[in-house]
Amino acid sequence: MDLVSIDARDKTPIYTQLERGLRAAMATSRLKPGDQLPTVRQLAVSLRINANTVARVYADLERSGAIETRRGVGSFVAATADQARPPRERDKRLRAFATRVLADAAAAGFSVEDVINALSAHQSGGL
Description:
Blueprint: H1 14-27, H2 40-47, H3 51-63, E1 67-70, E2 74-77, H4 81-84, H5 87-107, H6 112-123
Antiparallel strand pairs: 1-2
């Protein structure tokens, strides 16, 4: 299975293409939690890119919690599909969601405070 593809003609840096490709594979469940990733060398050879680039992407994905590396065993997907999305994308989606909720609330005659109070009551089991 081809996890990701790299387009040498694309002006996007190879590092970014690889990270986006791996996160997309996780976000679309082509890679699921527990799946083993190719070794750094295997992926570098198959994509014809520098192994240091793959190692850097793996390290960044590990720092973000998307993958887990077990010494002597390999790297494994740790993130669920939702967790695999880049944090900026998640924040962007959350802001868009909040904007839609507040716009719907305003159209229905509710204030921001009404929405916050309703959410708080719902979370504590009051609604």
